C-alpha cells in the first residue's frame, strides 16, 4: 500500500505575507484565495511511505526455499522496486531486514536477501513489510509536479486557461547526501514551451521517520488568466468570464509523482489534490463575489519628461501615472499595502507555444509597496502616500525598445491589488481594483500632443465678458450660460494643420471614463493658408435665444499672434450647462441608474453627475490635426485638452453663505394683486415674480428669469437678466419703464419681476425658473491651517519668544513660523512672551472645520502693534481687544465663523486700515448679526476704498 498524505496546505499572499511571503508566517489560507492576476505562494507538506500487509484473508507466504515471499497482489504496484530495503514485521515485531533483489514476471512474488535477523517459512496473516525511509536505496529524490487552476466543479486537468498548454515542473536531486540535504531544489518547466509558466517551484526534503519521508513543495504562481486576447471590452463592461461568473471560482489542483530518481521510473508514488475549492474574485470584488471596500477615485497620466498631460500610457515615451484609491468604510491608514500591476493585451499568436513565460509574453509587471519607492522592469518607480484619507499611487512606467515594438497599436491594463496588511487572512479585504483599460498612446500621439500648447483655458460667467480674466474652476447651475475662453499655440515647424476643432461639455472621470453632454464643431479644414499659416476666421453664433450682442452664444476661432515657431489661435464658445432631464442620455454611465428619476437618471441634467462617483462636469477642446513627424511621415490624430471643473448645482441648491438662502417663484396679473398660483395666462400678460429671502443683498449681483416650453429638445430657453440686454421678440419682457429684469429690496427681501408676453406662448406649456447670484463684495476663497496656532515674526529686533501652556515653555527662533497643534477637546490657556511684541507681524488662530478644537473667550492683541495679518477661523471669541496702535500698512483681518458680533467690532476693525494702503479687505463671513443691523456700523466707518466681505450666495430655483 502506497501512502502519500498532504499533511499541510498553505496559501500566502503579498498583502498579508509580504514580498517574500515571510511576514506573518503563521497566518495563511488553506485553500486558494485572492483575485485574478494575483501572485501567490502555495506550500504543501507531503508525507510518503509504502508497505504491504499480510492478513487472514490475504496472507503473505514465505516458502521453505526462503529468500522470496508471495502474495495475491503485485508487490511492484505497492511501491516496491529492486534495491528497496524493508523491515519484515510479524505481529508487531521486526524479525528481519531485507533488500529486494527481483520480482516474478507477474509481480506476485518478491525476491530478497536478508540483511539482518532471519526469515522463516510460513503463511503470515499479521504482517507488515515496510520500506525503510532511512535507507539510501529508498530515498525519493525526484518529483514530477503537474498543476492546474480549474473552476471549482471542473473535471481534473492541468491545462492552462490562458494557453491550453500542460503546466508542471520536473525536480531532481532532492534530499541527497548523508545526512540528507534539506535545501530546496528548484524545478524546471516540463518542456521547452513555457507559455503557461508564471512563477517557480521548489521542493525540499524535510524530515524522515523510520518509515516515512516528508517533503515540502513551494509554488509561487499567478492566478491567471489576467488578460487574454480580445478581453478588453469584457473587462471594461464588467462581463465576467465563465469560470468566475456567479458563484464560480478557481481552485488549485495538482498531481505529484515521487521517484527514486529522474532516470528510474520503475517505482513511483503519486498523490492527487483536487478537492479544496477556491475563492477567487475578478476585478472590483473581494474574493468570490463579496463587496469590495475599495474604489477607484481617479487616474491621471503625464509625460515623464515634459510633465504634459497625456491620455494614457505612451508607447514610445516614459509615462507618469497617478492613481487615487478610496476606502468605502473610512480612510486609508498609513502603510496601506498595495500592488500595482500592468499588462498588455498580446495577440494569441504572441503568447502561445513560446519559449518565454506567460508573464514575459504579456509584459506583466507587478510591484508591491506600503509606501517606499519600489521598482521593477516596466514599473520603474512605484510609491504610495495618504492624502485626504485616500491612497495616492505614483508610478513611472516605461518600456524597452523591443517592448515598444510589441505594444504598438495595442491596449493595456492597469490594476491595483489592495488590502489591509494588518487584517488576518481569514478576514481579508483584498481586492483587485481595475484602474484602467486603454489603448497605448502611440508615438505619433505623443508627437501630436507636443505640437499644441494652451496659454489660456478657463471660464467666464455672468456678469463677465470677453477680456475679463477667466477662472480655472467655477461653480455654476443647470441652465447657466458660460463662456469657455481659450488660446492655444500650434507648432509651425511640422507643417501642422487643423482639420477640425470640437468643444465638448462632458461628465468626466478619467481618460477611459467620460460621457458627452454637449458638443460644438468648428470646421477648419477649408481655411486658406497664407505664409505657412492657416488663416482661420470663424465668428459663428450658437442657436441659443439670446440677444445678438450677447457673448454667451459666441462660437469663434480666429488666427492670432504669429512667431517664428508657433501660431496662436484664439477661441471662445458660449455654453449652456445642460439641464434637460426629460431627454435620455444613452451615453451616461450605467452606474448612475436610478429608476425613481426621469429616464432612470441617465439624462442631460448635469448636476446629476457633478462630483458623484468620481465624475466632474468639465469642458474640453479637441483638435483634429495633421502634421509631419520627425521621420518625415504625415500623421493625423486628435489632441484633447481638459478645462477645469464646473461644480454644477441643481434646482434649490445654493452655494455660499448663508446656506439657508431661499427663493419662491409666483405669477400674478400685471398689477401684482391677483395671484395666478404659478399659472401663466394666455389672454393677458402675466407678472413673473421671484422673492429672494434670507440674504444680505448688495449691488454687485445678477438675477435671471427663465422660461422654456415643456419637453423642448433644442436648448431653447428664454431669459431676461438684470445685467444683460435681452433678446427682443421673446416671451419674457421687462416691466413698463424698465429695460432689464427689475430688482428691488422690499421688507428685507429682494424682489425680481418681469412680464410674460401672452402673445408669444404659441399654445405651449411652459416651465419657469429663476437664478440669483448676489455678491455684497466678491466671492471668497477659504483656506484653513488644520487645528493649529501659527505665529510669524519678522525678526527685526526680536531675539526670542516663549510660548507658555500648562507649565511648558517653547522657545521660538526669530523670523520663522511656529505652529502648534493639540488634540480634540483639550482646554489650553496660551500665553506668549515676546521681548519685542512689535515684531509680531502675522498671527493665525484656526481649526480645520466646525468640530473639535476652538479658541474661546478672549483674544487680547493690545501689544501687537506691528501686526499686519490676523487670521482666525472657526472659533468662539466673546471679546477681542485690538492693538492700541498700528503700523503704516494697516492690518488685514480674515475673521471667518468666530461668533463675533459684527456691528460692535466692525468700526474698530475698520479703524486699523490706513489711507497709505487704501484697498484694505475685512473678511467677516459667518459671524453674528450680519443683516440689517450692519447698516449703521458700516455708515460710521471712515476709510478709503474699504472692502467689507460679509456674505455670498448663489442659487437656482424653479
Through-space gap between termini: 86 Å
* Number of separate structural domains: 6
- The level 1 CATH classification of the largest domain is Mainly Beta
What is the average of the pLDDT values?
Answer: 85
- What's the CATH topology name of the largest domain? Coagulation Factor XIII, Chain A, domain 1
Brief overview, please?
The protein is mainly β and 958 residues long. Strands 1, 3, 5, 6, 7, 8, 10, 13, 15 and 16 form a ten-stranded antiparallel sheet that branches. A seven-stranded mixed sheet has the order 55-52-57-59-61-62-63, with no helix packed on it. It has a five-stranded antiparallel sheet with strand order 14-12-11-17-18, with no helix packed on it.
What are the defining features of this structure?
Elongation Factor Tu (Ef-tu), domain 3, mainly beta, 46% strand, Immunoglobulin-like, 10-stranded antiparallel sheet, Coagulation Factor XIII, Chain A, domain 1, 958 residues
Notes on the protein architecture:
With 958 residues, the protein is mainly β. It has six domains: 2-48 and 138-281, Coagulation Factor XIII, Chain A, domain 1, CATH 2.70.50; 50-133, Elongation Factor Tu (Ef-tu), domain 3, CATH 2.40.30; 294-442, Immunoglobulin-like (Sandwich), CATH 2.60.40; 451-529 and 555-582 and 605-649, Immunoglobulin-like, CATH 2.60.40; 653-774, Sandwich (Immunoglobulin-like); 788-924. 5% of the residues lie in helices and 46% in strands. It contains seven helices and 64 strands. Strands 1, 3, 5, 6, 7, 8, 10, 13, 15 and 16 form a ten-stranded antiparallel β-sheet that branches. A seven-stranded mixed β-sheet has the order 55-52-57-59-61-62-63, with no helix packed on it. A five-stranded antiparallel β-sheet has the order 14-12-11-17-18, with no helix packed on it. The longest helix has 10 residues, at 902-911. The radius of gyration is 40 Å and the shape is elongated. The N and C termini lie far apart (86 Å).
